[in-house]
Design goal:
This protein is of the alpha/beta class and 333 residues long. The protein contains 11 helices and 8 strands. It has helices at 22-25, 27-36, 62-78, 88-104, 151-171, 192-200, 203-208, 232-244, 261-266, 284-290, 314-332, and strands at residues 107-115, 118-127, 131-141, 177-184, 209-215, 226-227, 250-251, 271-275. It has an 8-stranded mixed sheet, with helices on both faces. The protein is globular and about 45 Å long.
Length: 333
Amino acid sequence: MKLPQSVQLPQSLKLPRSPLSGRALTAGAVAVATLMAGGSAAGAVSAAERPAAVADAPDIPVANVKAHLTQLQSIATANGGNRAHGRSGYQASLDYVRAELDAAGFTTSLQEFTASGSTGYNLIADWPGGDADQVVMSGAHLDSVTSGPGINDNGSGSSAVLETALAVARSGYQPTKHLRFAWWGAEELGLVGSSHYVDSLGSADREKISGYLNFDMIGSPNPGYFVYDDDPTIEKTFKDYFAGLGITTEIETEGDGRSDHAPFKNAGVPVGGLFSGADYRKTSAQAAEWGGTVGEPFDPCYHSSCDTTANVDDTALDRNSDAIAYAVWELSQ
């Protein structure tokens, strides 16, 4: 999630185009091996907990999502501790995600833009087939702030969207509508990448997007379960999923207008999404509903160096990842 507009992040390095990294090509094997070995994580949602309504949507293995987070953490560690726009860590993150998608059969493309004197990139991935006049699009920002690796913000959303896309490929899903996935650059500098994408679309192409789903911070360590209230159909889809789990949701207000759904909404595209909280503090009523610590931030490491793989709640990550798949399947049929 982007910083308030009053905060400016210094950028000094120009980001060159680089080939896909060799390390990226091995990451799919890591995730597959974890799954084949029956790996699971503490707090994972059991099959019995999943609502019957999601029978058509696959379970998203939280172990696979966490394997992506581990890769993003390693990338940050090897590149000055962050994955920020204009830095080598962002390029390596982009290479990793793109290699996974290319290997799975997606058609991928990079969209360039400039922010703070550096070249930035959006990654767009289209799943072949479906009605091109009805596009269901899901996205998350891939960049971190300069002060940390950005694992919850927003490795969590990026990894869950990636694993949902890979689940589409694994299942051979052929929806009625066309599926598109996106990873945005320079969100932390003011929604630059997603704004550039929306601005680059003609009115006819914007009208083809039947819904844009945004996922920015979905594994907060003291989590809440927040649903965007922008488009009624998308909102109901997510609420129905969580109601099937017996989980109460609240309307998302903390990040309203501060993430990549905003440019789409401003252009008239129906939007929705999920959020598990940033630096707002959990109330006693919220703790009674969701557990966790009263009076503490939903994410005490928000925009900090401690936003590492240790800064993620497995249960929230698992439930939200499954909710993404559920919404993608429901809204694309």
